[in-house]
Amino acid sequence: MVVNPVTRIALGVEYNGALFCGWQHQPQGCGVQDALECALAQIAGHAVAVVAAGRTDTGVHATAQIVHFDVDIVRPLSAWVRGVNAFLPAGVAVLWAHVVDAQFHARFSALSRSYRYVLLNHPIRPALNAGQVGWYHAPLDVALMQEAAQHLIGEHDFSAFRAAECQAHTPIRVLTDLRVTRHNNDIVFNLTANAFLHHMVRNIVGALVYVGQGKQSPDWIAYLLQQRDRTQSAPTFAAAGLHLCHVEYDTVWQLPQGRYVCE
Predict the structure, then answer these.
(1) Angle at Cα 115 formed by Cα 177 and Cα 190, nearest 5°?
(2) 69: number of CA atoms within 13 Å, CB side?
(3) pLDDT tens, 98-154?
(4) Of 34, 57, 157, 177, which residue is the catalytic one?
(5) Domains of the chain, residue spans
(6) Which of 23, 24, 32, 109 is the most buried (most CB within 10 A)?
C-alpha cells in the first residue's frame, strides 16, 4: 500500500466573532476551530486538527487569522479554499491555502500580531454595525489618548492589563506600535506586539477611554504599568470592536496576504 507523505498546509482565515463562542474548540461545538476542523475533515476524509496563531475570545473578529494543519492526502490547494468554504457556516471563510515546510508553526513561527479596535464615539449606539464596533456615548479627547498611549510602547510588564484567568507564563510583552486616530465618529486603535496577554488589547482600550473622557490623566497609564495591579485599571472593554488583522511571519515562508489590512 502506498502511503502519502504528510503535508503541512497553512490557511488564512477570516471570521465574524459575534457568531461564535471564540476561536478555541468547545464541548458544544460553537468555536471557530470546531467549524473549521469539521469542514476540513469533509475534504480530507478524516479528522483534522488545526493550530492557530492566536486564540480570540467570544465576539472578537479576525480578518487575518493564520492556522496550519497536517494531512497525508493529496488535494489541490483550491480544495482547501473553495471546497472547505462550501462546508463552513456563514461568518467564517478560508481566504487562501499554502503548502509550508514542516518546521512552520502558525503560533510559534509568528513574529508579531496586530489588532485593530474600532470604537464608535457617538451618542447613539450602533445598529448596522452592531457587534462589529465598540461604542462609547460621551465625547473623547483623542489627543489625550494618543499621549497616554506612548507610555505603553516598548517592553513592559503588562500585569495591569492582563485578565485574571490569563495562562501566559510571563506578563512581559513588547508593544511596538500603538496608534489612536479619529475617522469621523470612529476612533481606531492599532496595536502591534510580539504577543498579547489575555484581554490585553481590550484592557488597554478601556484604560485609554478613561483618559479620553478626562477621568484620568495620560500619566495614569505609566502609573498602572508601575503598579502591575489589574484591579487599579479600568474595566475590560467590549469585544465587539476588536479584530485580529495581521500576523507577521518571516518572508521565508512566502505566505499570501489577506484581502484586508489593519489600517
Answers:
(1) 45
(2) 22
(3) 999 999 999 999 999 999 999 999 999 999 999 999 999 999 999 999 999 999 999
(4) 57
(5) 7-109, 112-244
(6) 32
Instruction: Measure the CA–CA gap between 257 and 63, rounded to whole angstroms.
Output: 11
Alpha-carbon gap, residue 55 to 239, rounded angstroms: 13
Q: What is the rounded distance in angstroms from the CA atom of residue 148 to the CA atom of residue 163?
A: 21
Nearest by Cα to 6 from 64, 70, 60: 70
Give the three cell numbers for residue 195: 504577543
C-alpha cell at 196: 498579547
Same fold, 7-109 and 112-244: yes
Residue 2 pLDDT > 50: no
Domain 7-109 sits in CATH 3.30.70.580: yes
**Is 140 in contact with 180 (CB distance < 8 Å)?**
no
**Where do runs of H (alpha helix) occur along 84-228?**
84-85, 142-149, 200-212, 219-227
Q: What is the pLDDT of residue 1?
A: 38
Q: What fold, for 112-244?
A: Alpha-Beta Plaits (3.30.70)
